[in-house]
């Protein structure tokens, strides 16, 4: 009965969404308050119904109800409870259900917290949200029913892909979706604004916190995915420019650009059409990301089924959303009145430059990701576009962007003083040079070492530039310390958010550079008792124990002792696991970190003569990538907690002159 | 709200639009230049063993070779592994140094990336099976279907 209840609730949700997509829109056009209010009530009802459906599916998983096809295909009684629950979204149908649940949750949030929004704008935004909902609910009900029954029910299920049975990956999809779907808010507001023909500071104040929240979730989701790839795939890398990774990275780039251009709309009442366009792109790329990952057009851990009906449905949805919104944009954007003017050398100018670079980078990633699909469709042969392409294109675009990041905040709005800003950044300039040259010399002074020097210099520039900017704001060393402290206390949290995220990016750049240039790796056959030296560490293989039983796998566990100068640094035990259902091997790397370097050990197959193939890595500064990502999210949250987002914010009357 | 008239070197709306367009074009040009320079080494073509026999591929070209790992062909000598990739029509011997991915199995699909040598052997610098959950990479499945050697049981094993 419970799965049927869920199915029924989902069908009801579709009808509620249809009502929510039409009635408030008509109400807003007729200026009819009761009709507009339907949107809020419907948003409540829709969320409740989808939550019931999601609950029903979760229940089927927890109780291992194998009469449900979805559960039988993706679960097993031996699975730990955590993975029974996370298994709900570890498959196509369930993950789509999670998608609409999150969409409905955002709709609910809009209905709840949108009290002080102009009623017509709120009604229209809710209607647009519901339209997206209709598309996805129809998709689930017609092509990917998670509640389909199986008769007779099998005794046990097929189990979940062991690669997905991991805490890092278990919570990666919800965070990623919270990010993807979060951009639907910006999208809905953008469409609502286009219908109204009005974009102003109040609009931007509304869009910004939602975008920021979505951005934080997405950043965390991507970081989790990358971390998972780092420690489970056993290749010692953390980013492969895999299509599925790019799929999540593109909305992130567009979202980051949107975040910044929304500031310009809020503060300076300009760049409106551009911001609307970015909102449309950010969400379209989120949809595209879902499409790439779920439709099976690319092979990866994520692609579940290549059912052509589904692909066509999502493609149609994609065309409708992107085509429709761009059409509306073309029709209505000329009516958006541009506001404040500015010179190219101003804060607006630098934000715009960053926006353009970010969008271009996003475009090249899109090209590289989709090109193999086009080439295949056009019969140009099977091609894969690998990391060399992305590195060669992406990095040169990011260098000027990061260079401007330190400079932009130092410029004033409207008309900035580039020379003045450069003079005030002279400490950063000098220190950047020192860092660059020092790194270059330390690394041997060769041409190859220029790469490391460049990366670290760039990070130093951003790091010190951001600190200088903060110091200027609080008049550090220019005013008495008490005054500086006082200023520091009263600086808006949004300012701290910016400083922290920019510093965080510097940390990430340091991590990326370090891992790119200083990582060392050794692959060999080791017999128990043998020792291999890597980057000053002596790694001894003590032995390998076979047949260790886990809840649903058997593992061979190797035991390593890492010593430095004769002293024991760590005991490490990498595993090779063989899952029982489905019968698949996985690698469990052992990582010892001191938060600067990672010692990373993987055990491979036995060679049949008493030895084991082992892969040993010394990954320099990789932890900083993840620390930086978390710091970035923290900065986003600090900015999100800014006073102006909480109190009395977005009413149109209080628009600052 | 009236917009205060900009003075001095401030710009008019038209000029700003011009800057916007110029900036966009500049970015586009830069991106195009970068893409064109990166295309050479960034793109890797996929071949099957039969393709390798008919087309001559120089030892400098990085390519991907896909097919099934021939049963009984895997020989491990320490960290060096040799195996044969087949598409049921032709075969290519492959040498690889390193740890094979978890999903590498005899009789299963595999994609190796690397270069050909003069003797017709293939030196893989990477063996890919890392992101695939069915044991069959998409390219390999397509190639097998094309050559008529596809069997349904490859899909779920």
Describe the structure.
The complex is a heterodimer of chains A (657) and B (157). Chain A is an alpha+beta fold and 657 residues long. Among the domains of chain A are: 1-161, Four Helix Bundle (Hemerythrin (Met), subunit A) (Up-down Bundle), CATH 1.20.120; 166-336 and 348-369, no CATH class; 520-624, no CATH class. Chain A has helices at residues 2-30, 33-62, 69-74, 81-86, 92-113, 119-143, 167-170, 172-196, 201-232, 243-268, 272-294, 308-332, 347-377, 387-407, 418-424, 426-442, 449-473, 481-490, 493-518, 622-640, 643-646; strands spanning 383-385, 520-526, 531-534, 537-549, 553-564, 567-572, 575-579, 585-588, 590-593, 597-606, 612-620. In chain A, the strands form 2 sheets. In chain A, strands 3, 4, 5, 6, 7 and 8 form a 6-stranded antiparallel β-sheet that branches. In chain A, strand 7 (575-579) and strand 8 form a beta hairpin. In chain A, helix 13 runs antiparallel to helix 14 (387-407) and helix 19 runs antiparallel to helix 20 (622-640). Chain A is globular, with a radius of gyration of 27 Å. The model of chain A is unreliable at 299-305 and 653-657 (pLDDT under 50). Chain B is an alpha+beta fold and 157 residues long. Chain B folds into 2 domains: 10-42; 45-154, Nucleic acid-binding proteins (OB fold (Dihydrolipoamide Acetyltransferase, E2P)). Chain B is 29% helix and 28% strand. Chain B is built from 3 helices and 7 strands; from the N terminus they run H-E-H-E-E-E-E-E-E-H. Chain B has helices at residues 13-42, 49-54, 138-147; strands at residues 43-47, 63-69, 75-77, 80-86, 91-97, 109-116, 122-128. A 5-stranded mixed beta barrel of chain B has the order 2-4-5-7-6. The interface between A and B is large, with 67 and 47 residues.
């Amino acid at each position: 009965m419970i799965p049927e209840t869920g199915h029924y609730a989902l069908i009801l949700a579709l009808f509620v969404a249809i009502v929510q997509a039409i009635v408030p829109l008509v109400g807003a056009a007729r200026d009819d308050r009761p009709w507009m209010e339907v949107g809020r009530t419907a948003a409540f009802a829709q969320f409740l119904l989808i939550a019931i459906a999601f609950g029903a599916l979760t229940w089927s998983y927890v109780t291992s109800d194998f009469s449900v096809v979805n559960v039988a295909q993706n679960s097993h009684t031996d699975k730990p409870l955590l993975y029974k629950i996370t298994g709900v979204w570890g498959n196509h149908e369930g993950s789509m259900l999670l998608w609409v649940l999150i969409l409905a949750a955002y709709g609910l949030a809009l209905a709840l917290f949108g009290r002080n929004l102009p009623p017509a704008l709120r009604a229209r935004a809710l209607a647009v949200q519901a339209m997206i909902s209709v598309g996805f609910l129809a998709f689930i009900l017609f092509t990917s029913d998670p509640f389909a029954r199986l008769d007779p029910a099998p005794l046990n299920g097929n189990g979940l892909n062991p690669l997905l049975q991991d805490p890092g990956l278990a919570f990666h999809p919800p965070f990623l979706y919270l990010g993807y779907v979060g951009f639907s808010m910006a999208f809905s507001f953008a469409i609502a604004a286009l219908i109204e023909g009005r974009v102003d500071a109040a609009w931007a104040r509304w869009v910004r916190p939602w975008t920021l929240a979505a951005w934080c979730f997405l950043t965390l989701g991507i970081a989790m995915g990358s971390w998972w790839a780092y420690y489970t795939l056993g290749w010692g890398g953390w980013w492969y420019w895999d299509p599925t990774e790019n799929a999540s990275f593109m909305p992130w780039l567009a979202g980051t650009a949107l975040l910044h251009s929304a500031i310009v709309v809020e503060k300076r009442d300009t760049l409106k059409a551009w911001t609307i366009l970015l909102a449309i792109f950010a969400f379209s790329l989120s949809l595209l990301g879902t499409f790439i990952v779920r439709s099976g057009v690319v092979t990866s851990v994520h692609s579940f089924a290549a059912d052509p009906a589904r692909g066509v449905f999502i493609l149609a949805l994609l065309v409708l959303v992107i085509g429709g919104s761009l059409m509306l944009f073309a029709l209505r954007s000329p009516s958006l009145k541009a506001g404040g003017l500015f010179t190219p050398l101003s804060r607006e100018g630098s934000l715009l430059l960053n926006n353009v670079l970010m969008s271009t980078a996003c475009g090249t990633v899109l090209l590289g990701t989709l090109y193999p699909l086009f080439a295949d469709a056009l019969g140009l042969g099977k091609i894969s576009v690998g990391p060399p392409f992305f590195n060669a294109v992406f990095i040169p675009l990011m260098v000027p962007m990061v260079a401007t990041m330190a400079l932009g905040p130092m410029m004033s709005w409207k008309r900035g003083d580039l020379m003045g800003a450069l003079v005030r950044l002279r400490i950063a300039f000098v220190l950047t040079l020192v860092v660059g040259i020092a790194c270059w010399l330390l690394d041997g002074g060769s041409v190859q070492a220029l790469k490391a020097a460049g990366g670290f210099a760039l990070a130093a520039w951003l790091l010190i530039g951001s600190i200088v900017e903060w110091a200027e704001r609080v008049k550090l060393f220019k005013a008495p310390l008490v005054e500086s402290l006082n200023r520091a206390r009263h600086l808006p949290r949004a300012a701290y958010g910016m400083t922290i995220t920019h510093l965080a990016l510097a940390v990430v750049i340091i991590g990326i550079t370090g891992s790119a240039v200083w990582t060392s790796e050794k692959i060999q056959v080791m017999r128990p008792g043998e020792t291999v030296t890597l980057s000053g560490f002596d790694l001894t293989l003590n032995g390998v124990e076979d047949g260790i039983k886990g809840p649903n796998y058997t593992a061979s566990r190797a035991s390593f002792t890492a010593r430095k100068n004769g002293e024991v640094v760590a005991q490490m035990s990498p595993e090779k696991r063989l899952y029982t259902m489905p019968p698949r091997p996985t690698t469990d790397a052992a990582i010892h970190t001191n938060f600067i370097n990672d010692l990373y050990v993987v055990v491979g197959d036995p060679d049949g003569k008493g030895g084991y193939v082992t892969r040993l890595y010394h990954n320099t500064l990789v932890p900083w990538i993840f620390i930086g990502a978390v710091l970035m999210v923290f900065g986003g949250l600090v900015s999100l907690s800014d006073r102006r987002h909480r109190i009395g914010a977005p009413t149109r009357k209080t628009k600052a002159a | 709200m009236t917009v205060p008239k900009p003075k001095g070197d401030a710009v008019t709306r038209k000029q700003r639009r011009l800057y916007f367009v110029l900036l966009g074009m500049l970015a586009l040009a830069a991106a195009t230049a970068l893409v064109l320079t990166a295309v050479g080494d960034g793109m890797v073509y996929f071949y099957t063993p039969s393709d390798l026999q008919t087309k001559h591929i120089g030892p400098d070209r990085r390519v991907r070779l896909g097919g099934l790992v021939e049963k009984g062909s895997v020989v491990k000598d320490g960290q060096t592994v040799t195996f044969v990739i087949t598409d049921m029509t032709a075969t290519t011997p492959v040498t690889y140094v390193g740890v094979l991915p978890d999903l590498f199995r005899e009789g299963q699909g595999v994609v190796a990336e690397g270069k050909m040598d003069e003797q017709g052997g293939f030196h893989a610098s990477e063996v890919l099976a890392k992101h695939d959950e069915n044991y069959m990479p998409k390219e390999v499945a397509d190639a097998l279907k094309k050559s008529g050697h596809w069997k349904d049981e490859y899909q779920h094993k």
